[in-house]
From TrEMBL:
Segments forming domain Transposase IS204/IS1001/IS1096/IS1165 DDE: 96-212
Name of the protein in question: Transposase
Annotated Pfam families: DDE_Tnp_ISL3 (PF01610)
InterPro entries hit by this protein: Transpos_ISL3 (IPR047951), Transposase_DDE (IPR002560)
Amino acid sequence: MSGKIGAPQIRYAHAASPEELLWGQWTNKPSVVDDFKPYLHQRWQEGERNATRLLEEIIALGYRGSYGALSAYMRPLRAPHPVAPPAPSVRKVTGWLATHPDQLEEAHQLQLKTVLDRCPELAALIEQVRSFAVMLTQRRGHDLPSWLTAVKAEDLPALHAFANGLERDLDAVTAGLTLPWSSGPVEGHVNRIKMLKRQMFGRASFPLLRKRVLLTT
């Protein structure tokens, strides 16, 4: 083994404090790139990503360091930045608003909470939508007047239009939210007749349509 003492060993032997033993990435020594960082950041913001061209530019400004020092400084700038998850679509948020909270997946509940925290108007809207859903499913038509009053007190123009439509036929809406009977069967027959008319459009006359309606009753 050679008995020669290298430069690092001499440096360690003559160190006057522990800080002088630190070297490389553990030191806060000024870098040869420091004086050119503002220029490099400006060029980076302008879209220049080629280290060789940047090296030529700062050499013209007086840089005397190496390509490696410049490349090491630029390496963190090239690291990909975390990409925020895409915002949910309007259709998704609408679906969450119209879904019973117990039937929403946990991930969707968290996303909906994030949306509502950022939009007080939507938070007020979902409260009124869910109140109306309770009236609809539990046949609590007697709560309709108080619900209309609460809606008008909110700054929700779209819901105001819906409430005004309900008020124009208040007795029928109240009956629909209270009584157990439904016009569903009648609507079903109307839909069936319209379907038969579409199937026969331009192919036959009224007598055949009449027979098909009677035979499929």
